[in-house]
Fold:
Amino acid sequence: MVQGQLLEIFASKSAKEINSKRHLIDVDNFSPDEIKTITQTAKLCLQWMDGKHAPMTMFAANIVGNLFFENSTRTRSSFELAATNLGARVLNLDIDKSSVAKGETLEDTAFTLISMGVNALVIRHSQDKIQSDLSRILPAEVSVLNAGDGVTAHPTQALLDFFTMSQIAGDLTDKKIVIVGDIKHSRVARSNILLLKKMGAKVEACGPTKLMPGADELNKMGVTVQEDLNAAIADADFIMALRIQKERLQSDMQLSFEDFQKKYQINHVRLEQSKSKAKILHPGPVNRGVELTDELADDAKLSLIRTQVRNGVAVRMAMMALLFSRRPC
Ligand code: CP
Structure:
C-alpha cells in the first residue's frame, strides 16, 4: 500500500522537479512545494517503518555507496538503513582502509565505484562544497547526496529537523526557532536557517560572539541575533542546541567551556526562569553537561532528540526514493 501511495506522489509535478535535480546538495535547491513533497514522502516512509509492511522492491536496482571521510553515527547508519528499507543495496567504503589512504582522489574513488555499478554516492567530507563540485562531473544516472560538507551544508539534517518540528506544530510559518551555540562552525545551522526561512519560520541565533558567523553572513542569512539566552527562548516554539565543534575551533579561540555552560547551557532551570514552553532539538552528538544537561536531553516530554534520529531514517528514505523514482527497476 505504501508503495502505491509513493507512486502517486512520484506522479506529481513537484516530485518530478525533485527527481530532475538528480542530486541533494543543499536545501536551497528546493522550492517550498518541493520541501512539502519531501515531508509528505517522509510521512509515508515513517508509516512503512512503523507498520508490518512488505519489503519495498521498486528501488532494488539501486546501489548506494556510503563515503564518510568524517566520523558519523546517525547520518551514516540512517542512510544505510534507509537504503536497505527501500530494497536498495549498500556499499560502505571504509575510508581508512581504502585507497584514499594511498592518495587516491575523490573523483577517482567515485568513478571506481560507479564502474562497479554504484549509482548513488552519499558523501560526508570536511571540504566545503566538494559534493557540489563532484556532482558536475558524474554521469547523468548517478546521484550525489550530501551527508555534510565542511561548515557549509547538512541538508538531510535540516530536512529531518523541519519534519520533526512540523509533526508537532504543523505549518511553521511565524513559529520561532532559536538556534543556540556554535553557529559559526555549524553546517547544521546553515542548512536549517536556509530551510526554516524558506518555510516562513522566524529564526534567532543565540551564542557568544566568538561562535557567531560575521555580520555580513548573518545579514545574508536573515537571522536576528540575541546574546541573552533567557530573552531569546522566552517566546520560542523550538530551541535547537548545537554541539560545540571542538575539532573545528581554532586553537587561538580561547573559548571557556565553563563560561559557555553558565551563559548558554539549556537546562530545566533556564526554561523555568524564562517561562519557555519550547521543545528541544539537538542534531547530536550531544556534549552532555555542556550545551544540554543530561536531565533535559533525556526528558521525554521536552526533548525531541530520539524522535529526530528516528525521523532521520524516514527523511533519508524519502529523499532517496524521490531521486530514484524515475529509474527503471
Ligand atoms: N547529526 C549528525 O550529523 O550526526 P552524526 O555526525 O552522528 O552523523
Notes: The pocket of phosphoric acid mono(formamide)ester is lined by residues 72-75, 148, 157, 283-285 (CB under 6 Å). The chain has two domains: 2-154+310-324, 155-307.
